[in-house]
Specification:
Elements: H1 4-15, H2 21-35, H3 40-51, E1 57-60, H4 64-73, E2 82-85, H5 86-89, H6 96-105, E3 115-118, H7 121-130, E4 134-138, E5 152-154, H8 157-167
Parallel strand pairs: 1-2, 3-4, 4-5
Length: about 170
């Protein structure tokens, strides 16, 4: 959640890099998506959810070019119904409007409820709850930082999807 200019300034200093902060940030934006590999467990779980009639969307903060390239490299575009990227929309999670845009693109209505899975307590859990969604926090071995608790806590996205398939 650290702004990228501060993050890359710290990286540059820590490792004594010659590239400017702007060059490091640009390189990150172009190279990071290609490092993302499809997760067969996530893809299979999302496909099963869709088979059961779920509408699936992605709500993500970041630059449009980086986030869409990441979605494509992860091969998620074939198992979701739509997405909303903060950099394209001019609003960021946890703002409810970004969730509403994604829901609309998926042919869904936030008023009917749903689920948000994410690893940020504020952006994903807080934003999802504000949008009227149940939430699953991906803890990645971390302790819940506080605030309104998520509906469920799971270690990773595949486990979160499995929990929806088994307990939704």
């Amino acid at each position: 959640m650290t702004p990228k200019d501060r993050y890359f300034a710290a990286v540059r200093e820590r490792f004594g890099l010659r590239e400017s902060v702007e060059e490091l940030w640009a390189r990150y934006r172009t190279e990071k998506p290609s490092l993302i590999k499809p997760d067969p467990g996530v893809q299979a779980g999302l496909a099963r959810l869709r088979e059961r009639g779920w509408r699936i969307g992605i709500v993500t903060n970041g630059r449009e070019d980086t986030q869409v390239a990441t979605i494509m490299h992860a091969q998620l575009s074939v198992v979701v119904d739509g997405w909303a990227v903060s950099g394209a929309e001019g609003i960021k999670k946890p703002m409810t409007e970004l969730f509403a845009i994604a829901a609309s693109r998926c042919g869904a209505d936030l008023a009917l409820g749903g689920w948000m899975i994410g690893d940020s307590a504020k952006a994903d859990v807080g934003g999802g709850q504000s949008a009227g969604l149940s939430t699953i926090w991906i803890d990645r071995g971390r302790t819940w930082p506080g605030g309104p608790a998520p509906s469920r806590i799971e270690p990773n996205a595949a486990a979160a999807i499995d929990s929806l398939l088994g307990r939704a």
